[in-house]
Every structure is written in structure tokens, then in C-alpha cells.
Design goal:
By secondary structure, the protein is mainly alpha-helical. The protein has helices at residues 2-51, 55-65, 67-70, 75-101, 112-139, 150-158, 170-196, 202-232, 242-252, 257-260, 264-289. Helix 1 packs antiparallel against helix 11 (264-289), helix 5 crosses helix 7 (170-196) and helix 8 crosses helix 11 (264-289). The protein is globular.
């Protein structure tokens, strides 16, 4: 009996290892496809956030610049989103398993996905803030002449200190990513189960759960995203703190919540499409590999 138990244990370890690997792989591929589809919408929202203009003017700007410039700056977010998706789903699955196995854990099982997501969001911020910084500098029309290429942006940021260069707006990004990941994984499962209970297919349930969760996250954390974008487009050596930048942003929006949320409708649309597609692809791949 003792001799026959070992192969069973080895098979169990191998099965769990494959499952964890699939979580990383499927997270990356689902994020890659959704990023390519939604990038034009993202860039339109970004122009609204930076230039404080209506959606039709942002679209007119991008149309005038042409198709080639439409995807200018896609490389950093494509890399960032693919790597981020790989780690987001992979690490969350790993952390969730560790928390579930921890006998000393006092966290209710229903809260474990959100708790695992919180930790992943913090790691994301450390790893991917430089990608977001480069992306925001590239996408700003104000930087076209001074920093026309990716190489010129990298050289400029490298010459600065980390806090003012690659890690500009780090604290708001930590808050946004940690809260966003926690909300996503905390809401995704219950929402998917509720929708599936209405008789919809698993694919539709995953898509709807991703869109609804992203809607809640976008509405809650949109001001942080606007703050991050406005902080990161600046490439001058003079650095203002988070609170000073927030006061400047608030005053520039005439102390109006409505103006602060300008571009919010497109953010919700972009987020719904992105996370709906990402969630549907990821869940479908996980189901087929299990």
C-alpha cells in the first residue's frame, strides 16, 4: 500500500502544477487579444483625460493623425497587459491556493479570491508602473516633438530619479491596482454564478460577469486613473507630490465631479469590452484545460 501511494501523490502534484501553469498562460493570451481590440477606445479616453475635451474632439484628433499614429504607443500597453494578465490570473490562482491550504487562515473562504487579488495588485504596481509611465508619455500629443520615439522617451526617463522617472505616480497606481484586482476577483465568481443561474451559457456568463465587475471598478477608481495619467505625462525635472497634483487636477476641472469624470462613459465601455473579452477567453481556456 505504501508503495502504491507515491505515484498517486506525484500525479496529483503534476496535475496541480499544470493547472497553475495554465492560469499564467491563459491569463496572458486573453489579455493580449483584448488589448489589441480595445486600444483605439483606450487612446480616445486618454486624450479626453489629458486635454479635457469632448469625445468627438478626441476622435477628430485621432482621425486627423491617421491610422499609423492611432496605434502609436501600443507596444508598451500590449507588453504590459500581456505580462500583467499573465501574472494577474497566474499569481491570483497561486495565492488563492496558498491561502486555501493555510490551516491558520482566519479569512472566510468567500473572501479569499478578493484577498489574493489584493496582493497581486500590489505586485503588479511594482512591476508595471514603468510600462504605464512610458505608455502615457508616448500617447500625449504634447510630447510628440520633444520625445517622438520610444527610444527618446526611455533615454529621458532613465536620466531622472526613479520617483520622477519610471516610477512617477507609484502610490496612486498601488492603490488603484490593489483595489481593482481585489474587486475584480471578489465579484467575478458570484456574478458569473448568478448569471449562469438564469440559464445563460458559460461563455455568456463569463463575459457578463467581467463587464459588470469592470463597470463597478471603473466607476469607483476612475479619478485615480485620471490622476495617474496627468502625473505621468509630465517629463520635466520638477516633481510635485500626489496631493499637489490632485489639487491641480481638481482645480483644472473647476472643482466639478462631472468634469472630473469626463471620458468616464468611454472608460466604462472600454473596460466592459476589455474585461468581458478577457474573462470569457480566460474562463473558456481554463475549462478546456481542466
Amino acid at each position: 500500500m505504501a508503495g502504491s501511494a507515491k505515484p498517486t501523490q506525484d500525479e496529483e502534484v503534476l496535475r496541480h502544477s499544470k493547472t497553475r501553469f495554465h492560469s499564467y498562460l491563459h491569463g496572458g493570451t486573453s489579455s493580449l487579444f483584448s488589448t489589441l481590440i480595445v486600444f483605439p477606445v483606450y487612446k480616445t479616453v486618454f486624450r479626453q483625460q489629458i486635454h479635457n475635451i469632448q469625445v468627438y474632439r478626441a476622435v477628430a484628433q485621432l482621425h486627423k493623425e491617421g491610422l499609423v499614429k492611432l496605434y502609436r504607443g501600443v507596444t508598451p500597453p500590449l507588453l504590459m497587459r500581456t505580462l500583467s494578465g499573465t501574472l494577474l490570473f497566474g499569481l491570483q490562482d497561486t495565492f488563492l491556493r496558498l491561502l486555501s491550504l493555510a490551516s491558520f487562515s482566519v479569512i472566510p473562504s468567500s473572501v479569499l479570491p478578493a484577498a489574493a487579488g489584493l496582493g497581486v495588485g500590489m505586485i503588479e504596481a511594482v512591476l508595471f508602473t514603468p510600462f504605464e509611465r512610458v505608455q502615457n508619455v508616448l500617447q500625449s500629443g504634447h510630447n510628440d516633438r520633444r520625445l517622438p520615439t520610444l527610444k527618446s522617451v526611455l533615454v529621458k526617463l532613465k536620466a531622472q530619479k526613479l520617483a520622477s522617472g519610471y516610477y512617477r505616480a507609484f502610490l496612486p497606481i498601488v492603490a488603484r491596482n490593489a483595489l481593482g484586482s481585489s474587486l475584480y476577483f471578489g465579484l467575478k465568481g458570484p456574478l458569473s454564478a448568478a448569471v449562469a443561474g438564469q440559464g445563460l451559457s458559460p461563455l455568456a456568463s463569463s463575459f457578463i460577469s467581467g463587464t459588470v465587475a469592470s463597470m463597478a471598478i471603473s466607476l469607483t477608481l476612475f479619478p485615480l486613473s485620471v490622476l495617474v495619467a496627468n502625473m505621468q505625462v509630465e517629463v520635466q525635472t520638477e516633481v510635485k507630490g500626489v496631493m499637489a497634483c490632485w489639487r491641480m487636477l481638481w482645480n483644472s476641472r473647476q472643482r466639478s465631479v462631472l468634469l472630473l469624470y469626463r471620458g468616464g462613459a468611454l472608460v466604462i465601455l472600454r473596460s466592459c469590452i476589455t474585461w468581458g473579452i478577457t474573462t470569457a477567453i480566460y474562463d473558456r481556456q481554463q475549462k478546456h484545460s481542466s
